[in-house]
Amino acid sequence: MTFSPASRASVVIFSGPRATIQNSAALRTSQSVRQARGLAGADESLPESLRAQQLAAPVTAYVKAFSAHPLEKDAQELYGPVDGWLDPASGEFSADARDGWTPVYEVTLDPAKGPFPLPYAATQANGEPWDGPFDDNGTARQLFYPDASRIVAEIDRFGLDGYGGNNLMSGVADFDFVRAAPSGGYTKGQPAAERTDSALLGSEHGDLPPEVLGEDFFPYMPMRQEPALPTLAALTNIVYDTLTNGDYDGAIWLEGSPTTEETVYWLNLVIPTRRPLIGNCSQYGHGVFGNDGDHNLVQSVNYIASGVWADEQGDDRVGAVMIQNGQVFTSREVQKADARPGGYIAYGGHGGIVGNTVEDPVLSFVPVARHTSTSALRLDRLPDAVPGLNGDAVVTRDDAGHLRPEAMPKVTIARYVNYGQDDFSDSADSEVEILARIEKNLRDHPLSGLVAEGSAPYGGVYESMRAALLKGVFRGMPVVAVGRGGGGYAFGQSTIGGLFIRGSNLSAPKARILLMACLLKFGALPLPADPEAPTPAELDAIRAAVAEYQTVFDTH
Questions:
Q1: Tens digit of pLDDT for each residue in 24-59?
Q2: Mean pLDDT, consecutive 10-residue segments, the chain of 556 residues?
């Protein structure tokens, strides 16, 4: 059965943290308002600054004929009649031509067809004009949109294709908007009747309670708020419920450009969807000069609607991807390398760009790594409990099959550097950062592990670092070895006799994501009776557990 969407695709757009793609341009009080009210910054030489806004009632406007292009008047014989003429002095309208009057078109702006680009008239409570995102006290006026509905509306109204057509998103698909871990929030709540996001399927779409900065929404300015491990559990459950219970042709995840690649790879591992899941981000905020995010969104919708991703059964054969500036990257290999449009690379030296969306979406090859519906780590097949560092079972999922925030694995990265050893003793005692992390994991994180980013390309580490990492292994914490630079596959001395997991050509952040998911499936490594002196049999048991991890790392 091939994929064959209805006349229109059905797409859900998830809002994630610190998403520049959902960050609007700063709202500045317009020049016309400054001049009319005598406000600071009034300057008749400056042009008007327009912002997308809603009209409160229908408005009749008279548009000067032949003003959309400098050469319209030169070819006016090609045009039909105008609607009338306007006296430039009095503004009086006449349906009949009059000497010295301006030919115009009469149009009515319907509020339902908005938003429209209009002068921004608002001022601060103290009467001063708005000049940027912050007031004099440093308090933020939020700029991040709370969901993607407004972005879609503005793209449909103002975005144009090469032939001058608009409606580039809603002309292709119908949308639901889900706030999984959004960048903007309603600090005073929101009535149900005003909500633009979609309720989680199976739940009542009631009033939205007041939301808390840093707990319910996560901007990056003016005060950067980082999501934490419980946030990852919460957004995973929301995405899982939405895609499991909803009938969508595809999904789009929005997040800040430095980290989208990590969340999308995580979702690629744990969400059992059979439809495309696409990560989008932007180097420039929505509506500002050079913005690339709108283009990425439009191309992602076209990718979903095209069906190029489908196999003979209509299932996604590519897995979660990122679409940035016309390129389709696998979530496993993509990495942000530069803060500019197009600043993404395929990390690992062995592919990662599987197609493009410059014109009609096309694929050039299909990856072999397991993903989404074929993943061994999909949420609906994870165990409800796994062994923890203290030997007790860690309950990872609740009765509804959701991840429990308190059980989320903690994985940290230790980096090899040249001249890193304190001395020539090769003693683990000098690796205080690794040892302190091991101690904290034993105290606070019953599911935990480490990633050792070793030398390029094979992941080698110096002896004191190896000795410290083995202390973690012998206390139940799996260690993954990767090489910095991403050009080769970690093996050789980095495996330490089968006690470390070979991280293939994964970057350290991607190896961290995969190890977190594996900990939810396998749990802690077997614990020796004496971690300082494991017996040969205990070492064999650890190697057998590491081999299970290795199988997943070799295939995902």
A1: 888 899 999 999 999 999 999 999 989 999 999 999
A2: 67 96 90 94 92 95 95 94 94 93 96 94 90 57 90 94 92 96 93 85 75 92 85 97 94 95 97 97 88 93 96 96 94 86 76 87 93 97 96 94 97 92 88 96 97 84 92 97 73 69 92 98 97 96 97 96
Q: Are strands 334-336 and 327-330 parallel, antiparallel or unpaired?
A: unpaired
Beta-strand pair 385-387/393-395: antiparallel
Nearest-angstrom CA–CA distance, 237 and 272: 12
Q: How far apart are CA 548 and CA 133, in angstroms?
A: 51
Q: Which residues contact 341 (CB under 8 A, 6 or more apart)?
A: 283, 284, 290, 292, 325
The predicted-structure confidence for 480-537, as pLDDT tens digits, reads as follows 999 887 655 665 444 578 999 999 889 999 999 999 999 999 999 999 999 999 999 9
Contacts for 350 with CB less than 8 Å, ≥ 6 apart: 333, 505
Give the CA radius of gyration of the chain.
28
Indicate the DSSP class of residue 374. G
Please state, in angstroms and rounded to a whole number, the distance separating the CA atoms of residues 252 and 281. Answer: 10
- Specify the DSSP class assigned to residue 407: G
Nearest by Cα to 494 from 530, 537, 463, 532: 463
Q: Which two tokens stand for residue 512?
A: 């961290």
C-alpha 153/C-alpha 25 separation (Å) is: 16
- One-letter amino acid at 211 equals E
What domains appear along the chain, each with residue ranges and CATH number? Answer: 9-25+141-372 (3.40.50.1170), 31-119 (no CATH), 382-554 (3.40.50.40)
Evaluate if pTM is beyond 0.85: yes
Beta strands per DSSP E along 268-392 = 277-280, 321-324, 327-330, 334-336, 344-346, 353-356, 362-363, 385-387
Helix (H/G/I), strand (E/B), else coil: 242: helix
Are residues 20 and 256 in contact, defined by beta-carbon separation less than 8 angstroms?
A: yes
Peptide bond into 222 cis (omega under 30): yes
Task: Report whether 541 contacts 526 (CB < 8 A).
Answer: yes
Picking from 339, 180, 328, 190, the residue whose alpha carbon sits closest to that of residue 258 is 339
Q: How far is CA 453 from the centre of its chain?
A: 25
Which tokens go with 292?
């690339």
